[in-house]
Amino acid sequence: MTDAEGIFFCQAQIETIDAINEPKISEPRKLTLSALKCKKCRQTIVSTKDFVNHDQGKGQTAFAYKKRDSSFSQIVCSSYFIEPMDWIFDRVQEGELEGKIKCPTCQVKLGNFSWAGMQCSCGSWITPSFAIHREKVDEVLT
Q1: Which run of H or of E encompasses 129?
Q2: Can you give the pLDDT at residue 134?
Q3: What is the distance between the alpha carbons of residues 74 and 33, in angstroms, rounded to a whole number?
Q4: How high is the pLDDT of residue 27?
């Protein structure tokens, strides 16, 4: 056996060992939204089981002419709509039909509610409406 054959033999062994120890590549795991947290204090606000799903609207054509945004191209919901929660009404006076949704811990505004309903940014109407703005919360993915 020459030196060249010895090097080849060692290289083959190394490649075999690398192939055995190489981690198996599996399909990437899809992350799903499980909860929302206040962006300021990181308090968990709501889980996905309390979300209200709605049908996608017709986008900007669903809005009155003066409320349309010509630069807006995609139909994207800018808020999460949730079920009425007890912590929302802890600081709301009785009989209010609409108001602000504030974090129960740090009191920062997270969204708004309206018993009469409101229009989502995608154009769909949600009644009654309890909207948490996406920019005010962090998404918890699992």
Answers
A1: strand 129-133
A2: 93
A3: 21
A4: 66
| 3-class state of residue 12 by DSSP | helix
SS3 136: helix
Structure tokens at 101: 């949704």
Cβ atoms of 90 and 104 closer than 8 Å: yes
Task: Specify the amino acid at residue 58.
Answer: K
Sign of the C-alpha dihedral computed for residues 94, 95, 96 and 102 taken in this order: positive
Read off the pLDDT of residues 1-60 as tens digits, 9 standing for 90 and up.
555 554 444 555 545 555 555 555 666 778 888 999 999 999 999 999 999 988 776 655
Cα distances (Å, whole numbers) of residue 55 to 31, 89, 127: 22, 27, 13
Q: CB of 4 within 8 A of CB of 104?
A: no
Query: Is the preceding omega at residue 23 within 30 degrees of 0, hence cis?
Result: no
Q: 33 has which bridge partners?
A: 141
Q: Indicate if the alpha-carbon torsion angle 129, 134, 140, 141 is positive or negative.
A: positive
